[in-house]
Amino acid sequence: MSQSNSVGLIDLQIMWNRLIAVVEEQAQTLMRTAFSPIVRECGDLSAGVFDLQGRMLAQAVTGTPGHVNSMAESVKHFLRYFPVESMKPGDAYITNDPWMGTGHLNDFVITTPCFHNGKLVALFSCTSHLMDIGGIGFGPDATDVFMEGLYIPMLKLFDQGKANETLFAMIRANTRQPVDTEGDVYSLAGCNDVGARRLVEMLDEFGIDSLDELGDHIIARSREAVLAEIAKLPKGTWHNTMTVDGYDEPVTLSASLTVSDTGIHVDYTGTTGVSRRGINVPHAYTTAYTVFGLGCVVSTHIPNNAGSLEPLTVSAPEGSILNAPKPSAVASRHVIGQMLPDVTFGCLRQAVPERVPAEGTSCLWNINVRGHVKGGEGGNYGFGMAITSNGGTGARPDKDGLSATAYPSGVRGTPVEIAETQTPLIFWRKEFRPDSGGAGRTRGGLGQIMEIESGIAEPFDLLAAFDRIDHPPRGRDGGADGEAGFVALKSGGKLKGKGFQLIPPGDRLVIMTPGGAGIGAPAERDRVQVANDLADGLISEEAASKLYAYKPLQAAE
Questions:
Q1: What H or E segment, with its residue span, contains residue 527?
Q2: From 107, 171, 259, 429, which residue has the greatest number of CB atoms within 10 Å?
Q3: Distance of CA 188 to the CA centre of its chain
Q4: Which CA distances in Å does 55 have to 51, 58, 304, 423?
Q5: Is there a contact between 506 and 514 (Cβ–Cβ < 8 Å)?
Q6: Relative orientation angle of helices 527-535 and 541-548, to the nearest 10 degrees
Q7: Are 102 and 71 in contact (CB under 8 A)?
Q8: In contact, 324 and 281? CB cutoff 8 Å
Q9: How far is CA 56 from CA 75, 184, 211, 288, in A?
C-alpha cells in the first residue's frame, strides 16, 4: 500500500482507527477482569500496542496518563532485557521496577509479543494498580523502596505458554491479599492476549503482514500535527513555581517552559531535592504527567502515541524530588507527580491565558485503608483498599471547574457500595463540600465531605497521602483560592495529611477534599449563575452575599 495515493492514505487512516479500537478492547478486558477495585471500578490502568522498536502506536482511551505515558517508555526497557529475536509465541514479561515501569511497586507492567503467521509483528503492554504487594503498605512512610513491597525485576512471566510458577509463588507469598494479587496478574496477561488476537484478525482482514508502514504513518502524522499546533504558540521561555505540602516540610516545584520551533521543553531545575519519605517521583512519571498537561493545552485532538509525544521533552536534575534515584521511596509518587500539569499551566497561562485553567486539587485523595477481619479464612490476612476520592478542579477561563473530579489522573471515584462491600467500613456521609470552590468570574469545582467508620468494632489503619492541606490551589486574575483539604476525627482530633494513623472504633474519619481555585473577580460573575449556585446548594447564602455581593431580587427592589 502506497502513501502516495489517496486510497492508500484512507486505508491507513481506517487501520489507525481500528488499531485504537483494538487497544480499547484490550483495556476493557483488563478493567472487566481485574480483582482490584481501583482498576475494575475506577479505571486505574493503561493499555497500548507498540512496534518492534518499542514505539507506542496506539493507547486505549480508558486509562490514566501516569500509566500510559510512563508505560510508553517501559517497553523499551523490556526490549533491552528481552531482544525481539529471543521472543517466542506464548511468552510474556513482567516488572514493577519503578524506574523501568510506571513509578512505584504497586503497578505491575506486563508486555507480550504478538505473532502473525509465525512472525513477530507487535508488542502489547499493559499496567494496573495492585492493592497490596507487601511491605509496610501503600503509603508514604517508607524511607527506601525496599520497604515498600515486593520488587520484581525484568522477568519472564510465561515461557511459551508455561507459567513461571516460582514467580507466582513469590507473588502470593508477599501480599496480604494473595488471591486478588495473583488474579490481577492473570488479568493483565489476559488483556494482552485479547489485544494480540484482535490485531491478528485486523492484519488478516486488511491483508497486511506487518505494522511497519502503518506505524511509520502514525508516528509521522502525529508528530507533524503536534508541531503544527506548537507553531501557533508564541516563542519564548516562561517560569512558574508551586509550593505543596510535602511529607514533613513543604516542597517547591519549579519549572521553566520553553516553546521553540522544534517543540516544547520543560525543565525542573530549582525543584526541591529528594524526600526521606515515599513521595519521590521517578523521572518517567515526571515526564508522563508533564507531557500530558502540555497535550491538554497544545494538542487536545491528536491521538497519544510516540509521534505526538516526541516534540514534548522534560528534564529534571537527578537527585531532585522529580528525578529521584533508586532506592528512593516512591510509593506515593502520584501526590507530587500529579501536580505537574498545574505547574506547567502556570507557565503556559503567561503565553496563552485563554486556554489554561486555574489550579485545582490535582493529586488524588485516595483513602488508603487497611485492617484485620477476625475469623478470616482461605489465606485472608485482612482487608486493604484504596478508596479513590477527588477534589475540585480549577476554574476554566469560560466555565466553572468540575466538582469532585480527578484531574489529571482521570480515575473515577470508588462507589460507596463497592467500598462497603469490599471492606467492613461504613460511609455515614459523602456529599459535595459547599463553598469549597474558589470564588470568581468562573468558580472552582467543589470538593467532598466524607465520614467513615469501622463497622466491626475494630480499629482500621489510614495510610494517608493527601496534599493541598497547607497550600491550597491558588486563584488567578482576582479569583479566590480553593478551600484547603482537611483530615480529622469526628471526635475532634486533627490528623496528619501524610503517614500511618489509627482510626479507633466508634469514631469516624472525616475527610474534606480541597476545592479548585477561581478565575477573575467574583463581582464579575453573572447574577443568574450565582442564583443557580444557590439553588443547587453549591454555595451558601453567606458566601453568595459576601463573595458575590448577591441579593435576592425582591430585596434588591
A1: helix 527-535
A2: 107
A3: 18
A4: 5, 9, 11, 41
A5: no
A6: 160
A7: yes
A8: yes
A9: 9, 23, 12, 13
- Compute φ and ψ for 35, nearest 5 degrees: -85, -35
Report the distance separating Cα 47 and Cα 58, nearest Å: 9
What is the Cα–Cα distance from 106 to 531, expressed in whole angstroms? Answer: 46
Distance CA 237, CA 145 (A): 36
How many other C-beta atoms lie within 10 A of the C-beta of residue 61?
16
Exposed, middle or buried, 19 (CB in 10 Å: 0-12/13-18/19+)?
Answer: buried
What are the DSSP calls for 325-360, one per residue?
PTT---TTHHHHHTTHHHHHHHHHTTT-GGG-PPP-
Could you read off the pLDDT of 267-317 as tens digits, one per residue?
999 999 999 999 999 999 999 999 999 999 999 999 999 999 999 999 999
For helices 283-298 and 212-230, give the axis angle rounded to 10 degrees: 70
Question: What does the block give as the cell for 388?
Answer: 479513590
CB burial of residue 153 (10 Å; 0-12, 13-18, 19+):
exposed
pLDDT-above-70 percentage for the chain:
96
Q: Please list, in sequence order, all residues whose beta carbon lies within 8 angstroms of the beta carbon of residue 204, skipping any fewer than 6 positions away.
A: 116
Q: How far apart are CA 429 and CA 323, in angstroms?
A: 39
Q: Which amino acid is at 107?
A: D
User: Comparing C-alpha atoms, which of 458, 491, 257, 239 is closest to residue 369?
Assistant: 458
> What is the Cβ-side half-sphere exposure of residue 408, based on CA atoms within 13 angstroms?
31
Longest dimension (CA), the chain: 82
Cα–Cα nearest to 272, from 236, 234, 324, 230: 324
**3-state secondary structure (DSSP) of residue 96:** coil
- All three cell numbers of 303, joined, read 491521538
Q: Which residue is it, cell 466555565?
A: 399
What is the distance between the alpha carbons of residues 377 and 15, in angstroms, rounded to a whole number? 50
pTM of the model: 0.94
Instruction: Please tell me the distance from the alpha carbon of residue 514 to that of residue 314, in angstroms, as a whole number.
Output: 28
Tell me how far the alpha carbon of residue 549 is from its chain's centroid. 38
- Find cell 487497544 and name the residue: 23
Percent of the chain whose pLDDT exceeds 90: 91
Question: Under a CB-based contact definition with an 8 Å cutoff, are residues 485 and 352 in contact?
Answer: no
Express each pLDDT in 227-276 by its tens digit. 999 999 999 999 999 999 999 999 999 999 999 999 999 999 999 999 99
Dihedral (Cα; 89, 95, 100, 106), 10-degree rounding:
140
Residue 110, CA distances (Å) to 49, 155, 285 in order: 12, 10, 17
Taking alpha carbons only, the member of 466, 419, 460 closest to residue 447 is 466
Q: Which amino acid is at 163?
A: A
Q: What are the beta bridge partners of residue 211?
A: none
Q: What angle do CA 62, 64, 70 make, to 5 degrees?
A: 120
Q: Say if residue 553's pLDDT is above 80.
A: no
d(CA 335, CA 332): 6
pLDDT in tens, 415-446: 999 999 999 999 999 999 999 999 999 999 99
Helix (H, G, I), strand (E, B) or coil at 430: strand
CA distances from 249 to 96, 245, 275, 320 (A): 29, 7, 9, 15
